[in-house]
């Protein structure tokens, strides 16, 4: 990718990455999936985990990889992953899937292959879940039930069957680990009727309290394009399980076109992937949704699953043998997000601001009603200093970086030394005195460059800067 992102401002430095050990907590999770099917190699990418700045890692439990012969459990592969992760100060989030073909009616071992439905299959599944929960009870505190129950062969299951499956799984884990944080549903795409019936069943069986959060996966070409569906889903969750946390449990974009998996039929690049990932992360943060980035490394899909090509959504490049060959632009862009947005910041709900086209800007199309921008505000919990995220949100991220210059006014901003930050490159720029003023409690910024990836107007003290 040769496109250069140019800001007409003085560069002060770049965002300094923060190791996961330096961050107490944050909104972010990281996908480390498919190790159960050997589509990726944990040892090849483990050294890249902590520098990314995300503490929670999503893994699949891999029943078929662990119990290849009925009643014989070989945990060594998963022991290694869990122990390495915990030893590095990271926190595994372990999913109880997939199925196991060594038992009749116990489901399949690939994405969308179907969950256990027979009495024999369910009994064997429950034994495995119980043994896994007991084995890792002092290392794993976050769990998730079956992946994407409304996808592929799982479509034969009703929402009620899926809800019952979630309940029986959660009860096994809770019996062993009462304080477990369990994710419900892991919906493959947002299906409002499915969500409604699922939660009706949980509520009717007094089982909503078993779960800490509800997860969904939504691969939309425009990362900002699923707000209405998420809003409808949130309304249903609040109706039946008030206070249940919403988590986007798996989402990302490829770095090349015609690759395997979701969103493949678009001409992606490393730049548009980085824009997609950062926009989705910050859109989720701005709407109080936890966010898991899929995934740490490219995955080489083989076998009998529905995907037969490399899945290029990884932040790291890999070869056919799953060896890491380098970092993509998205890896560094995600580092920029994690370095700034942790639990020391709180969202400013209903942040008050106005914006308008800067005088003399040539991009007159911006006035048209089919263009929009996203703006979210945050403040430091102690100092109350602020940071605002801004980007064009109306289209699929592209490879051009055409800037539109806008004027902004923020109520109660209280800025003392504001800077502009580009979240793709991490570059930090000076906002000259001629482009910033205060009128009472209103901070006004003039000719701020905005494009289809997030920029920040931030108090300088909130940005870790490396020169």
UniProtKB/TrEMBL annotation:
Transmembrane segments: none annotated. It comes from the Bacteria. SUPFAM superfamilies: (Trans)glycosidases (SSF51445). GO terms for molecular function: hydrolase activity, hydrolyzing O-glycosyl compounds. InterPro entries: GH (IPR017853), Glycosyl_Hydrolase_39 (IPR051923). PANTHER family: ALPHA-L-IDURONIDASE, BETA-XYLOSIDASE-LIKE PROTEIN-RELATED. This is Glycoside hydrolase family 42 N-terminal domain-containing protein.
């Amino acid at each position: 990718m040769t496109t250069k992102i140019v800001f007409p401002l003085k560069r002060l430095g770049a965002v300094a990455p923060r190791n996961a050990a330096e961050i107490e907590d944050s909104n972010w999770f990281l996908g480390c999936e498919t190790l159960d099917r050997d589509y990726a190699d944990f040892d090849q990418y483990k050294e890249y985990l902590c520098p990314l700045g995300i503490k929670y890692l999503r893994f699949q439990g891999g029943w078929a990889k662990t119990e290849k012969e009925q009643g014989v459990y070989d945990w060594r592969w998963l022991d290694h992953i869990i122990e390495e992760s915990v030893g590095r100060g990271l926190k595994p989030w372990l999913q109880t899937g997939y199925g196991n073909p060594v038992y009749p009616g116990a489901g399949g071992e690939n994405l969308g292959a179907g969950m256990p439905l027979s009495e024999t299959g369910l009994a064997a599944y429950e034994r495995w879940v119980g043994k896994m929960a007991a084995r890792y009870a002092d290392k794993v505190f976050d769990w998730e039930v079956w992946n994407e129950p409304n996808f592929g062969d799982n479509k034969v299951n009703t929402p009620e069957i899926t809800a019952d499956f979630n309940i029986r799984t959660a009860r096994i884990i809770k019996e062993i680990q009462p304080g477990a944080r369990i994710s419900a549903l892991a919906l493959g795409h947002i299906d409002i009727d499915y969500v409604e019936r699922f939660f009706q069943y949980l509520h009717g069986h007094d089982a909503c309290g078993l779960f800490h959060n509800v997860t969904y996966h939504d691969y939309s070409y425009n990362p900002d394009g699923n707000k209405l569906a998420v809003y409808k889903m949130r309304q249903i969750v609040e109706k039946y399980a008030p206070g249940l946390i919403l988590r986007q449990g798996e989402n990302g974009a490829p770095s090349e076109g015609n690759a395997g998996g979701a969103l493949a039929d678009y001409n992606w690049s490393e730049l548009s992937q980085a824009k997609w990932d950062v926009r989705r992360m910050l859109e989720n943060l701005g709407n109080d949704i936890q966010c898991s980035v899929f995934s740490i490394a490219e995955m080489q899909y083989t076998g009998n699953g529905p995907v037969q090509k490399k899945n290029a959504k990884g932040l790291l490049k890999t070869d056919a043998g799953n060896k890491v060959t380098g970092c993509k632009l998205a890896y560094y862009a995600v580092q920029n997000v994690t370095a700034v947005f942790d639990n020391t910041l709180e969202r400013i709900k209903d942040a008050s601001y106005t914006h308008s086209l800067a005088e003399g800007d040539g991009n007159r199309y911006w006035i048209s009603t089919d263009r929009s921008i996203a703006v979210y505000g945050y403040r430091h919990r102690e100092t109350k200093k602020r940071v605002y995220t801004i980007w064009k949100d109306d289209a699929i991220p592209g490879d051009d970086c055409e800037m539109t210059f806008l004027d902004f006014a923020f109520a109660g901003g209280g800025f003392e030394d504001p800077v502009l930050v580009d979240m793709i490159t991490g570059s930090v720029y000076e906002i000259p005195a001629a482009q910033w003023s205060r009128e009472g409690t209103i901070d006004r910024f003039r000719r701020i460059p905005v494009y289809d990836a997030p920029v920040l107007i931030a108090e300088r003290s909130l940005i870790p800067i490396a020169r």
